[in-house]
């Protein structure tokens, strides 16, 4: 099994550890502000790789949005359902995303980059089919085309990124306009962030 294929099992085995160490200080807030700036309370947001729902889904719910979450880890989704029973959380792989509906915003924060380069390329039509007109999309990537193997709970943790120009092309080809792109944002834990909007 490849390191990329091991991601679902890793987050299932170590769900409690992930929930315990996942920061709740919401350093992501400035980017979440930008993601939802065009939205009104009651808008629908899709959180891909929602984890345990804290802090991102919790923040979105606190702002009055209706959140649908998707994660490969059943134990993490169970935590989401316990914490936010009024919202809709699914166990599933974003590579198979097919909800037959659109959303006002889509976020894939520190989750999309666990996919292989090939799988990332294939996600852009899925993003497009789930984003309503004017809908926003935010995801994190690496700063340049590369594969990096980190570590979590003593196991290899796969990450990959495409070249920034390829992301720009894929977004454009699928009907998105890049609103903002910051490489290794020092105000956001060094995250490389993309924010786009469906034309």
UniProtKB/TrEMBL annotation:
Matching CDD domains: AdoMet_MTases (cd02440)
Keywords of this entry: Methyltransferase, Transferase
UniProt feature coiled coil, ranges: none
GO biological process: methylation
Identification of the protein by name: Methyltransferase domain-containing protein
Listed Pfam families: Methyltransf_25 (PF13649)
Highest rank taxon of the organism: Bacteria
Residue ranges of every copy of the Methyltransferase domain listed in the record: 45-135
A GO MF term: methyltransferase activity
